[in-house]
Amino acid sequence: MTVPSFPEGFVWGVSTSAFQIEGATAEGGRGPSVWDTFTATPGKVARGEDARVTADHYHRYAEDVALMSQLGVDAYRMSFAWPRIQPTGSGPANAEGLAFYDRLLDAVCEAGIDPVGTLYHWDTPQALEDAGGWLSRDTAARFADYAALVGERFADRVKMWIPLNEPMVMSIFGYGIGEYAPGRALLLDALPTAHHQLLAHGLAVSALRAAGAASIGTANNHSPIWGEGEGEAAAFLDALINRLFADPILLGSYPEVLHGRLPDGFADDLPVIAAPLDFYGVNYYEPMAATTPTAPGPLPFELRPVEGYPMTTNDSPVVPDALRELLVTMHERYPGMPPVHITENGCSFDGIHDRERIDFLTGHLTALREAMDAGVDVRGYFFWSLIDNFEWSKGYAPRFGLVHIDYDTLARTPKDSFHWYRDLIKRSR
Ligand SMILES: O=C(O)[C@H](O)[C@@H](O)[C@H](O)[C@H](O)CO
């Protein structure tokens, strides 16, 4: 199967995040984050692994930029580590932290690659978490201060800005079921963290605009929800996973079914949250399926495994057409939405000769083209990820990179998929 062509000017990119690749967690004045605390807590991460070194990007960023240059990407989506820039999440910036991102972004720009800056990819400064984290409305105000600080320093180099990566995962996995940092299991009582993150998003958009940001969007993860005949269960899961984080931004309203779970006065914040954007970033990995609970419980749905598809080594079903389905659904649901970028899409497979990853890319890019032929305005695609990295509570076993990392020697080895993606990008020029 060959990949269809993409329009002139289509953006080809790769994505990473600070905590998953930087390492040097106690260097350069960086403060502790919720993930440093979580990885240091026995039983939270597979095999007791942590990210104190991971791919050591903090010291080896020039090597990684050279790999991106070989790849020929147009853009590189990275994240700033809040605890590296503001060690306690408030107050003056840490000069060494800013200097690291100066070095990194200068190298990216010198390589002719456009930096795409995510302000936050789940590494909340521990001091803010101790003060309530995203359960506290004040954290949104702290985030706005941080956004202004980073915007003022880097708006001259960053071409596209993303305030928050996947607020859904922080709310559901971090505060709802406790699988991720900070490890709270509040179930639906976690939903105020969604509102406070969305408020932080809106406040950051205006802070970045004031700092001269060129283009601002999101990186929300979305999944088509399957649930034939499971009406209420599927609708609730869709509201929780998709609409809770898209409707306020794209429609200026929350799904009715969740109103009772949001902080008092939430509606007053909607105009801030619904600040106009230049693009809507979608992170897509897999469809989800819901079923009506077999017994009374706290949630009006149960997750049903998606079967009958190839599986990744991270237990995700590979369903390329679900990406087309998702984008067409969003296009119909949000007629006024800005142009879309796929800010993450990827898969975990082992080995340097990674035929499965090339098949994954072929299938998803074909589905993406079909969504575009169906009228969805998609402007770019960022593969997750450039290099193997720390996959949160799963540790280092799932390998998502186009480049293999030997975690003993930190050697980088391009995989077959790296060469395949490079050739695709070259052909698309
Ligand atoms: O989507 C996410 O969960 C995150 O943005 C990434 O940090 C993950 O590492 C990636 O998706 C693979 O699971």
Automatic annotation (TrEMBL):
Q: Which top EC class is named for this enzyme in its record? A: hydrolase
| Gene Ontology BP, a term | cellulose catabolic process
Q: Which GO terms describe its molecular function?
A: beta-glucosidase activity
**A Pfam family matched by this chain, by name?**
Glyco_hydro_1
Keyword Hydrolase annotated? yes
Q: What is its EC number?
A: 3.2.1.21
The protein's matches in Gene3D superfamilies, at most eight in alphabetical order, are given as: Glycosidases (3.20.20.80)
Regions that span the bilayer: none
In terms of superkingdom, the source organism counts as Bacteria
The protein's matches in InterPro entries, at most eight in alphabetical order, are given as: GH, GH_1_N_CS, Glyco_hydro_1, Glyco_hydro_1_beta-glucosidase
Entry keywords, A to Z: Carbohydrate metabolism, Cellulose degradation, Glycosidase, Hydrolase, Polysaccharide degradation
Q: What reaction is this protein's catalytic activity?
A: Hydrolysis of terminal, non-reducing beta-D-glucosyl residues with release of beta-D-glucose
Q: Which GO terms describe its cellular component?
A: cytosol
> What PANTHER family does this protein map onto?
GLYCOSYL HYDROLASE, LP05116P
Family membership: Belongs to the glycosyl hydrolase 1 family.
- Fetch the NCBIfam families from UniProt: BGL
Name of the protein described by the UniProt record: Beta-glucosidase
